[in-house]
Design a protein that fits this description.
Length: about 425
């Protein structure tokens, strides 16, 4: 087993908790003493740094939300001066002002370390050529992976997004061994390669994908691995916490949470109480070592569950499971909760279905209607109307069983739905337009 830093990654749990407690305590003292925002928040919650006597006392601290960053735009929450900052990233978001994140040199180092650990844990290192096809710039994906890949001594091919044919040419000519991008962009790359007469599986040296920044499912992983002949690893993070930070290891059993850097709680979003390992709830993170924008008990809005058992890879840091959805992307269709991930999971187990789909929800009269547009794969696309009717009935039946709600299905030609180079947009909810 290769580790980036075994002393930290395999530290016994009790020592890890002690380390976390020390870091939390000094963070809380620092913020209470020097940041008016945190000082006021703690006072409102009636909590003083002296009340933090154990790591579980994190629960006494107030929560933070994305709106706190927006309300304090652009930099009122920063706890480092502008001279100490070495970088900004900006996340556009869908409503209102963007959120701005500042980084000190130590913040960049901690972030790169988390990615160096992750990339090492999937078996990458010196000699690997990592094509970074996440966007470079204000988005954290490109530069984040770039710094992590350099840290492990790999060679970076910084293609960023777009110009897909050139990406494929470079992947082939420079013998890239891994690619980091959104899963939807990798699907697009795979299709464009086929059109160019290139098989990613047979004609390139690609062996791993580091795929994230958007939800995807286990059944999509199987499809990608079989089709492209690579191992597909999930990577998770959000700009407010730095960017991509938590990666699955070679075991592919959830993201390791580097707990010397981040303290993760899973809470019930309604009662705000902590949940037991294995129970699904909202991911809530405290950044223990960040200087410019620490974030305490930040409610990300993503849904997952915690796994505290030591991983088969030997790393003691707890894992969270693949993101199941967001507290706010749950669709309520005729009173039934539906997550887009359930739809993807079901569709990907149907052999005639291709990789791409789109969900359209609208209100007809008093009722919600859900239409799922589904691309067929090339082999199954036929103009024999009877065959298509049968596939459609089967897809509708499978979706009804999985979701407990009717979805109308429209089968569409391979290649006809929009393709995405960054994050994909799979849901069009006309009710909120
Ligand atoms: O997407 C950071 C990132 C870059 C992660 C590259 C992974 C790889 P934001 O643009 O701020 O940051 O979006 C963060 O995207 O709260 C999740 O809802 C979603 N997300 C990110 N990774 C995953 C994933 C980057 N692996 C938001 N699975 C998060 C599911 C993900 N959702």
């Amino acid at each position: 087993m290769t580790y980036w830093d075994p002393r930290i990654e395999t530290i016994p749990m009790t020592d890890l908790k002690k380390k976390q407690y020390k870091l939390l305590k000094s963070l809380v003292y620092r913020l209470y003493s020097f940041s008016p925002f945190y000082h006021d928040r703690m006072k409102e919650q009636n909590v003083h740094p002296d009340d933090i006597r154990d790591i579980s006392d994190v629960r006494k601290l107030p929560f933070m939300f994305k709106r706190d960053l927006r309300d304090n735009y652009p930099d009122k929450l920063f706890t480092a001066s502008q001279e100490e900052l070495v970088r900004y990233h900006v996340s556009s978001g869908t409503t209102g002002k963007p959120t701005v994140v500042g980084y000190t040199q130590n913040d960049i180092d901690g972030w790169s370390t988390s990615l160096a650990r992750g990339l090492t844990s999937i078996g990458l290192g010196r000699g690997d050529i990592i094509q970074v096809s996440y966007g470079y710039g204000l988005f954290t994906g490109g530069l984040g992976l770039h710094y992590g890949a350099e840290r492990i001594g790999a060679t970076v091919l910084p293609t960023s997004v777009g110009n897909t044919e050139r990406q494929i040419e470079l992947m082939q000519d420079l013998k890239a061994t891994a690619i980091a991008c959104t899963p939807s962009y990798l699907l697009h790359i795979g299709e464009v390669a086929e059109k160019m007469g290139i098989s990613i599986k047979n004609d390139t040296c690609l062996k791993a994908g580091i795929l994230g920044a958007e939800p995807w499912t286990e059944s999509m992983r199987t499809r990608i691995e079989d089709w492209l002949g690579i191992k597909a690893f999930d990577i998770y993070g959000t700009s407010e916490l730095s960017g991509p930070m938590f990666t699955e290891c070679a075991e592919q059993q959830g993201f390791h949470i580097w707990s010397d850097l981040a303290l993760v709680e899973i809470i019930d979003p309604k009662t705000e109480e902590p949940l037991e390992p294995g129970e699904k709830g909202e991911v809530t993170v405290t950044m223990l070592q960040k200087e410019a924008l620490p974030m305490i008990r930040y409610r990300i809005g993503d849904i997952s569950s915690m796994e505290e058992e030591v991983c088969a890879c030997g790393r003691t840091h707890p894992r969270i499971q693949r993101i199941q959805g967001r507290v706010d992307d749950m669709l309520i269709i005729r009173g039934i909760n539906v997550f887009p991930s359930q739809i993807e999971h079901t569709l990907m187990t149907i052999p005639e279905v291709g990789q791409h789909f789109q969900i359209v929800v609208e209100r007809k009269g008093a009722l919600d209607d859900m239409l799922v547009r589904v691309e067929l794969n090339k082999e199954s696309f036929s103009d024999k109307i009877n065959d298509l009717m049968q596939v459609r009935r089967n897809v509708e039946h499978r979706l009804r069983n999985a979701l407990n709600v009717n979805a109308e299905v429209e089968l569409v030609e391979p290649g006809s739905l929009p393709r995405f180079e960054g994050k994909s947009k799979k849901v069009i909810d006309k009710r909120s337009m």
